[in-house]
Amino acid sequence: MRISWPKTAVLCLLVIVLLSSCKSAPKEVQRTEFLMDTAITITAYGDKAEQAVESAFVEMKRVADLMNANDPNSEVALINKNAGIKPIKVSSDTFELLERCQWYSELSGGAFDVTVRPLVELWAIGKKDKYVPTDEEIQQVLKLVDYRKIELDPKEKTVFLPVPDMGIDLGGVAKGYGADRARNILKKQGVHSALIAAGGNIWTVGQRPDGKKWRIGIRHPRQETGDELLGVLSCQDLAVVTSGDYERYFVKDGVRYHHIFDPYTGFPAQSLVSVTIVSTDSAEADILSTAVFVLGVEKGLALTDQLDNVGTIVMTPELKVFTAGSYLSELELMHEKGENR
Ligand code: AMP
Ligand code: MG
Q1: Shortest-distance atom of ligand 1 to CA 112
Q2: 90: how many CB neighbours lie within 10 A of its CB?
Q3: Whole-number pLDDT of residue 3
Q4: Of 148-157, 246-255, 281-290, the least confident
Q5: Which residues contact 7 (CB under 8 A, 6 or more apart)?
Q6: Of the bound ligands, which one is closest to the alpha carbon of residue 268?
Q7: Which of 1, 28, 128, 259 lies at 20 to 30 Å from 304 by C-alpha?
């Protein structure tokens, strides 16, 4: 059958309309909430984004309510309040995360240690005014820092800190864990493109809505404005987690005192200024970013070398960059690489 010109024109128009509707940008939903002492932003794309982002925040709030030691009603606060008194029954989330923390504490030789709470409270970085504790105060508090003393009962799902004044602080892992949970919910609810930014914890879900990889900028640790970058990593379906000495700190007599503590000395770790870990598990990446920060270049990279599928980017106080491991083939560095580890 011959199609007359007007009919062809109508058909063409229809095809153009259909094609343009296919190409129109997917719906973007962006929401920010303040949880775990951090502004958390989720940006998600597609028809299911609205509901999925809502559910992801409900889940992150649940995790924050369990694990924020600064919230007197959290499970962690309850464990701490009962140190030296009695074991506390906890959720599977808290119990299993503490088990994982113990594993990484062993692996890192105690560089990552969630019993740093008494050190966190003594220094109170950002709360007290440029306060450097005395050696005596630090030695006193260090007696309470030892992950091996945490008693975990897998049958009863209880946690016990056997020494009074001991305390757990999940500040080095809870945001990463929360981001993993949020990411799983977005995926389960049909979101194929999203970005979760929880402080230094980033989850790239799928690709960007234009089908390209996400480009994640790693902040240069010595740029106060945050404009200059250490590097940019193109990636998808990966967690990119950074620990830096620029988040919470003060400078006294030329020394920068910040919030990541070396559990051996009781002082803020001084060997590195920034550590980024890339992994498919942001709780793992969060733990490792803190652990490597404490360990320094040599021991830190030796630690991540032992693990499969982890990428590591570190910067020394001399502003030299070292990289190792997986997922870094599309890393653009804006800074000089160091030569020997
Ligand atoms: P992040 O920014 O992920 O490196 O975590 C830093 C937070 O982890 C601090 O604010 C403390 O709450 C906690 N923290 C500090 N030092 C350690 C450590 N050596 N091991 C485990 N957690 C730590
Ligand atoms: Mg961490």
Answers
A1: 20
A2: 22
A3: 45
A4: 246-255
A5: none
A6: 1
A7: 259
- Residue 169: CB within 6 Å of ligand 1? yes
For residue 303, the Cα-to-chain-centroid distance in whole angstroms is 18
> Which residues are CB-contacts of 81 (< 8 A; sequence separation ≥ 6)?
none
> What digits encode the pLDDT tens for the residues 189-216?
999 999 999 989 999 999 999 999 999 9
Q: Which residue has the tokens 């194929």?
A: 192
Q: Tell me the per-residue pLDDT of 95-114, one tens digit each, with 9 for 90 and over.
A: 999 999 999 999 999 999 99
User: Is the overall model pTM greater than 0.90, yes or no?
Assistant: yes
CB neighbour burial string for 267-276, b if at least 16 within 10 angstroms, e if fewer: bbbbbbbbbb
When pLDDT is averaged across residues 217-233 and rounded to a whole number, the result is: 87
- Alpha-helical (H) ranges within 166-318 are 174-188, 282-305
What integer best gives the mean pLDDT of the chain?
A: 92
Q: Probe ligand 1: pick from 248, 260, 277, 288, max atoms within 8 Å of CB? A: 260
Location of structure tokens 């020494």: 163
What type of residue is 64? Answer: A
Report CA(17)–ligand 2 centroid distance (Å).
Answer: 49
Q: Cβ distance 90 to 77 under 8 Å?
A: no
284 lines ligand 1 (CB under 6 A): no
Residue nearest to atom 11 of ligand 1 (CA): 171
- Ligand 1, residue 101: give the atom nearest the CA: 21
- One-letter amino acid of 250: F
pLDDT at 340: 65
Q: What are phi and psi of 143, to 5 degrees?
A: -60, -20
Q: Which of 59, 20, 15, 19 is closest to 36 using CA atoms? A: 59
**Residue found by looking up tokens 């990279």 in the block:** 301
